[in-house]
Design goal:
Elements lengths: L1 E5 L3 H13 L3 E5 L2 H10 L4 E5 L7 H10 L6 E5 L4 H9 L4 E4 L4 H12 L9 E4 L2 E4 L4 E4 L2 E4 L2 H12 L7 H9 L8 H16 L4 E6 L3 E6 L2
Parallel strand pairs: 1-2, 1-3, 3-4, 4-5
Antiparallel strand pairs: 6-7, 7-8, 8-9, 10-11
Helix pairs in contact: 2-3, 6-8
């Protein structure tokens, strides 16, 4: 099970992530609402844990935006004792549950299990941009009646581009999401994998391309 944890208190976030990972959850951690919204819309998560009081965007703003955009991912809110009105607002906005700080480990785990018991929403096995389809079950790129296979890293990278088409993704963000901050891989590994994906798109004779945005990163777009 993959979770996104958004908590601006870094020591608390580190402790919560450690607890969840110890109980076999895969956890991505962010420390502000803008990052929480970006991550939530850039990957598939089984559940989101959002602190209400965060910089840049509050947990309630992130929740409201996701629900208005049709996201059905289960969401657990972290609240303070004096945030009764926020709890009600959160539940009315589509949160699945909340937990009040301070809480102990058994309660946290019980709330997470309860959140994840919601019936799974359907996730398409394919993504399409322009004339190219990404087969998520078989790690294939398909276009013009042709198919070409992707290795695990290429697939993860292409999926990230498909989920964020026409958006610039920085090398640092790609490195963090695909290889992880703790990875010993050098950042040029991003360029190497993008070069491979470009060649495969060319082999498919696709109009979709990965363009370099000088000083910013890369963008998946349809060539006019």
């Amino acid at each position: 099970m993959r979770l996104l944890l958004a908590e601006d208190e870094k020591d608390l976030a580190r402790a919560l992530a450690a607890i969840l990972k110890h109980h076999s959850y895969e956890v991505d951690v962010v420390h502000n609402g803008e990052d929480a919204l970006f991550y939530a819309e850039s990957a598939e998560y089984d559940g989101l844990i959002l602190d209400i009081m965060m910089p840049k965007k509050s947990g309630l703003e992130v929740l409201d935006t996701l629900r208005k955009r049709g996201a059905q991912t289960p969401i657990l809110l972290l609240t303070a004792k004096n945030q009764l009105e926020d709890k009600v607002t959160g539940l009315d906005s589509g949160a699945d549950d909340y937990i009040t700080k301070p809480f102990d480990t058994p309660e946290l785990l019980a709330r997470v299990r309860s959140m994840l018991r919601r019936p799974a929403t359907y996730v398409s096995d394919t993504l399409t941009v322009g004339d190219v389809t990404l087969d998520r079950s078989n790690y294939l790129l398909q276009a013009n009646g042709q198919s070409i296979s992707l290795n695990n890293r290429e697939f993860q990278l292409m999926e990230m581009f498909f989920l964020n088409s026409n958006q610039v993704l920085s090398k640092e963000l790609i490195m963090d999401r695909i290889w992880g901050l703790e990875s010993e891989a050098e950042i040029n590994v991003v360029w190497v994998n993008i070069s491979s994906l470009r060649k495969k798109l060319q082999q498919l004779e696709s109009k979709v391309k990965i363009s370099a945005q000088r000083g910013l990163g890369y963008k998946l777009e349809v060539d006019a």
